[in-house]
Amino acid sequence: MADHRVPVATSLHRWESLTSLHWSYPPRAVAPLLPDGLEVDVLDGRAWVGLTPFVMRDVRLGALPPPRAWARFVEVNVRTYVRHPASATDGIWFLALLAPSRAVVAGLRQLGLPYVHAATVTGLRTPLLRACGLPPPSGPPHALWSRGVGVPRPSLP
């Protein structure tokens, strides 16, 4: 893995209570959702789509204090893993970025991030995956990773 250093942090934040649920799909189901120049990164011949809810805290630009509305909010993202053959790099492509705070969404959109307002971010597994152009998952997630701050959480068997 290449070492990428960031000379100046433009934003700072903390993630808390992060959970990551993943479902596998045939690569042909995910490929049409990607922009030109990106390819599906596969593992065991399958594309992986993650649903990741977490709490963002203390989101701020550089050394500025966090705006009051951004002190703590929930985010949910739907992601998949990609390769960029032209640069021989891999990464994450976000299919959806959601937050329940209109102020947070408006601010992040001003920064060029494609956040969408969602009145609630709970109970959205199947609707979110469908909205991203994916069929509903057939069964429980294949992988679950969850971590609360200082509180261990059980994983699926």
Number of alpha- plus pi-helical segments: 3
Strand content: 35-45%
Order of helices and strands: EEHEEEEEHEHEE
Beta strand count: 10
Largest sheet features: 10 strands, mixed
- Structural class, by secondary structure, is mainly beta
Q: Spans with pLDDT under 50 lasting ≥5 residues?
A: 143-157
Q: Helicity level, as a percent range? A: 10-25%
Question: Please, what is the average pLDDT?
Answer: 76
Cα(first) to Cα(last) distance is 30 Å
* C-alpha-based Rg, rounded: 17 Å
Oligomer: single chain
- Name the overall outline: globular
Notable characteristics:
single chain; 157 residues; mainly beta; 10-stranded mixed sheet; 10 strands; 13% helix; globular; disordered C terminus
Give me the secondary-structure topology.
Blueprint: E1 11-16, E2 18-25, H1 27-30, E3 39-40, E4 42-43, E5 46-61, E6 72-84, E7 89-99, H2 102-110, E8 115-117, H3 125-131, E9 143-148, E10 151-152
Parallel strand pairs: 7-8
Antiparallel strand pairs: 1-5, 2-5, 2-9, 3-6, 4-5, 5-6, 6-7, 9-10
